[in-house]
Amino acid sequence: TGNPVRASLLTIHEKVKIQEAHKLFQLKMKKTTVLVLGGSLGARKINQLIEKNIPFFKEHSVQVLWQCGKLYYDDYKKYDQKENVCVHAFINKMDLAYAAADIIISRAGASSVSELCIVGKPSIFIPSPNVAEDHQTKNAKSIAEKHGAILLNENELDIFPTVFETLLKDEGKQESLSQNIKELA
Predict the structure, then answer these.
(1) Overall pTM surpassing 0.90 (yes/no)
(2) Is there a contact between 168 and 103 (Cβ–Cβ < 8 Å)?
(3) How many other C-beta atoms can be found within 10 angstroms of the C-beta atom of residue 177?
(4) Three-point CA angle 122, 60, 87, nearest 5°
(5) Between the N and C ends of the chain, which has fewer C-beta atoms within 10 Å?
(6) CA angle centred on 110, ends 64 and 128, rounded to 5°
């Protein structure tokens, strides 16, 4: 039957929900928003990547909605004071986070992948290599092979700025990723 997902995800593309999302997270409507998800506990490598690239995001006029995880919140909450960065330990209103997002950076657990297929936003998967049978890499690879997402392994994070900038500038690629991942829902 597949993985159960939140029914609220089915309405994230409605204008009212997008406006509500931007208001809740205090984001600007006309700026590109990247949603960063590392799971409820957080993902050290993803958090380090985002911290390192805050100037890069600012330079490209991208605002960041960053769920850093409860284990790392004390380390990264200082960035919540910066312009265009909104840091949370945990996000309770995931439908609104997805509604606000233009591009998503996420781990590739089964629940995350299932939700992102429904959401249909351009996604970059950074799978955790520290899980049983490397299942996150397998999940991400199965989507990436069908041109539904970009797979970036933790040992390739040095190329993140190039990968992200290329995606950011290529609306055709964004649309293609969105359409292809939706077909896998």
Answers:
(1) yes
(2) yes
(3) 24
(4) 70
(5) N
(6) 60
